[in-house]
Amino acid sequence: MAITEGKYPLGKEGWTPELLTGLVERIHPGTSVTDCTVVDGWFYGSEQASTSGRLALDLRYAGAEADKLPARAICKIAQTVSSAEALYANEVRFYRQLQPELASSAFSGPGLEIETPLCVGGDYDAASGTYALVLEDLGQRGVIFPSVRTSLTLPQLRNMLAMLARLHGHYWQSPRFAGDLSWVESHVAGDLHTLFHSPDGTPGHIAHLVETIQFKREMVQRLGMSVDELFDSFKKVQHHQARLPQTLLHGDTHIGNTYLLPGDKMGLLDWQLSVRGYCMHDVSYIIATALPVEMRRKHERELLAFYRECLVEAGVREAPSAEQLWLEYRRAMVWNVYIGWLTTDITNYGWEICVLAHLRVMTAFEDMETAKLLRAMD
Fold first, then answer.
1. What is the distance between the alpha carbons of residues 378 and 376, in angstroms, rounded to a whole number?
2. Which of 35, 117, 189, 333 would bridge with 135, disulfide CB 3.0–4.6 Å?
């Protein structure tokens, strides 16, 4: 892959200690990179990269925090100058401004932290649309990266739901969204909203994929709704849930954005879609993608009850009732179908993962009678 003319290269060449020091100093002042080696790379089209390419780097440091940073890191890089700029800019903001808080004493105590990768450095260059985000290589901690082909166990999923409840509970109706966290976007305003709602953006891309890829087209037909109806319904749910209690969301909690640590502990990757919104957005997506269809059908109500218990334990005194959560869980399935997977090209993950993920979210959509609920919102 050729090197971009932008600030950050898109391939293996051009990564110097000076360039990486500029990234590291933004998060770890007084720390520099003295040596770097590009070990490997994974790029779009390899079925191992979605919206970002990745490089494996061996790094050496000097300065204030040199002993705290990992020798092996993964650098996420933007592939093109495109409408995906909103995703890259948002993820850099998250790791530079919010991730340190999630790893702080606010979530102290055994098993209470919000598990995310340590950020070494990151920047988004608006002039060229290129970005670089350097994170610890989780492989050095022996993590497993699950997918729809390697379903979670119930204990693992409960651990994920407990972590989401801690995240949601901590920021539940936080006055900080009008203060120091006012930069956190919502589902109804901001660059991410524009990306997903502009006719020339995601909706046009989805319409093209459904028109040209037969299995997507037939799965949409099976739902009994057109692509335009799904788009309109998606917008209605977004505006409706924006009027419900708001909290900080991961925003893209499909199973492929998680990782497993020893002891069934779980973590969350890829915070590009982190926003403030309603809790069932996160909960519906992880349950719908993490479990085989029959397992989900059998356990989803008890998993929602477990999540609610954890939300109360996290300090949400007026937590939504079980029935309220169930209703919004069912409505939230429209995101999982429309944005979650109809927008995903086969090239991102390969045929098997893509088709199986479509099957899970669309079967959940049918099981929940989500189409009926959406039409009742007219």
1. 5
2. 117
For 147-178, the DSSP string reads -TTSPPPHHHHHHHHHHHHHHHHHTTT-GGGG
> 153 and 290 share a domain?
yes
Looking at the structure, do residues 157 and 97 belong to the same domain, yes or no?
Answer: no
168-196 residue pLDDT tens: 999 999 999 999 999 999 999 999 999 99
Residue 58: closest CA among 137, 121, 141, 139: 137
Model pTM?
A: 0.93
Residue numbers of the domain that contains 193: 142-376
Whole-angstrom distance, CA of residue 245 vs CA of residue 236? 16
Q: Single out the residue in 89, 123, 138 at which a domain terminates.
A: 138
Question: Residue 5 domain-assigned?
Answer: no
pLDDT digits (tens, 9 = 90+) for 67-89: 999 999 999 997 554 567 888 89
Residue 242 exposure: Cα atoms within 13 Å on the Cβ side: 13
